[in-house]
Write a structure and sequence with these properties.
The protein has 96 residues and is mainly α. It folds into two domains: 1-49; 52-96, no CATH class. It has helices spanning 6-49, 53-70, 74-79, 81-84, 86-90. Helix 1 crosses helix 2. The longest helix has 44 residues, at 6-49. It is elongated and about 75 Å long. The chain starts with 5 loop residues before the first helix and ends in a 6-residue tail after the last helix.
Length: 96
């Protein structure tokens, strides 16, 4: 069996490096997505099940201030209609 040239071996190593970098990037994106999901789940849980009404009120107020500037797409904004609904905040109803 003929030995591979140094050039061939370097090309194979470069290809392996590209493959591993792509795998690492995919893994990092998956971890980032998981962190966002868990953080969002925590926020939603605190909005729905908090034993601290003052904290829940302040969290809702913060979200109402911050989300409109953060959300760009109409479909994304629609996902948070329940949180952004100003009528809920001023209706005197208890959103918790």
């Amino acid at each position: 069996m003929a030995r591979k040239s140094i050039t061939q071996r370097l090309a194979e190593l470069e290809e392996r490096k590209r493959t591993l970098k792509a795998r690492l990037g995919k893994q990092e994106r998956a971890q980032d997505t998981r962190r966002k999901i868990l953080l969002g789940a925590l926020v939603l849980h605190r909005l729905e099940h908090s034993n601290d009404p003052d904290f829940t009120r302040r969290l809702r107020e913060w979200l109402r201030r911050e989300l409109p500037g953060f959300l760009v797409r109409d479909g994304d904004k629609a996902l948070f209609d329940d949180v952004l609904d100003q009528a809920e905040m001023t209706s005197g109803g208890n959103p918790e």
